[in-house]
What we know:
By secondary structure, the chain is an alpha/beta fold. The chain has a single domain (16-30, 39-282, 293-325), classed as Rossmann fold, CATH 3.40.50. 28% of the residues lie in helices and 22% in strands. The chain contains ten helices and twelve strands. It has helices at residues 68-75, 93-98, 103-106, 124-134, 143-153, 170-183, 200-217, 228-234, 252-257, 262-270; strands spanning 16-28, 39-52, 57-61, 83-88, 91-92, 107-110, 188-192, 220-225, 237-242, 245-251, 317-320, 323-325. The strands form two sheets. The chain has an eight-stranded mixed β-sheet with strand order 6-7-8-3-9-10-12-11, with helices on both faces. It has a four-stranded antiparallel β-sheet with strand order 2-1-4-5. The longest helix has 18 residues, at 200-217. It is globular. The structure holds adenosine-5'-triphosphate. Adenosine-5'-triphosphate (ATP) is lined by residues 25, 27, 42, 44, 62, 64-70, 289.
Amino acid sequence: MTLPPHAPDAPVQPIFELIEVEQVFEVPKPGRPLFSRETVGLRALDGVRLSIRKGTSLAIVGESGSGKSTLLRVLLGLDKPSGGRALYRGKPIGEARARGTGFARDVAMVYQDARGSLDPRMTIGAIIAEPLRHFNIVPREGEAARIAQLLDRVGLPADAAERFPSGLSGGQVRRVAIARALASEPSVLVADEAVSGLDVSTQAQLLTLLQSLQRDMGLTLAFITHDLGVASYLCEEIAIMYLGRIVETGPTDAVLKAPVHPYSAALRAAAPQFFEPLSEPLPGEIPSPLDLPKGCRFSTRCPVAQSDCQSKDPQLGKLGSGRAVACIHPITQA
Ligand SMILES: Nc1ncnc2c1ncn2[C@@H]1O[C@H](COP(=O)(O)OP(=O)(O)OP(=O)(O)O)[C@@H](O)[C@H]1O
């Protein structure tokens, strides 16, 4: 379940909790004179509230530049947010990561560029052995058997251990990246566009694999994607981002069947065929994050914006049934 924090129906401590998280990057001020060092703050995340409970799968969806990767870097403790609180099991993520509390073992990552994340000079076996050794998962004599087990779990033959990444297809490389991520026996898997850029049938096979891993191992999954079809297939919960904010969140089926934020509805309408990336860009240009619209930041593109949308900045508010929306005139379903 994904709920705004402190919701009365949120009794269990979440694995991750983001409370009013902000990430501001200092970037060169547009149009600054040559040699000037003047900078301006780019709000890549602006008041993000999110909680991820144990054993759930959450898709983080939004157009390019909406802040998905920035959010992921905060979740992984790679960047400290410039404002708000980012917690892992109730502790600041940065501290959890730095103090050797088991964070690095517990939270594993599958990168978007799976091939680029694997050392081309190492065999697949050596690549998977690295986390096994680093986290002391099995004694050396048990390593080969554990590698074979992991390869089998992701649908690769045991002899893949002897091969190099260059000898594997795109889909196989993603499987290796998943096997490596599972080697530390994590309870959380964070994946960034882990199935994008593959043909549809390979994508479907990988999604089936990820789904079975999530269910069988009780993994908590945070999955970044542009693709609503992927979100709908894999994730129980969805968080839709726009210009650094979560604008709608809730159970994926309910949100995609009956979106209440006009942005979610526009995304849904632009992807009529699930398992296809957004077929057409949404109408209107995404405003610059350096010059955010007043009031609701979606108001400049919103087909149902009213005059007060330009003055009131809507916050994420609960709707019931685990859903929340940041819109002052949400779509009401007939
Ligand atoms: N290190 C950085 N320095 C300056 N600006 C950044 C930095 N990282 C991200 N941004 C800016 O923050 C905003 C959000 O970027 P982010 O990469 O998180 O979006 P995204 O949703 O992941 O996009 P994509 O789907 O294209 O990867 C963008 O305007 C981006 O230019």
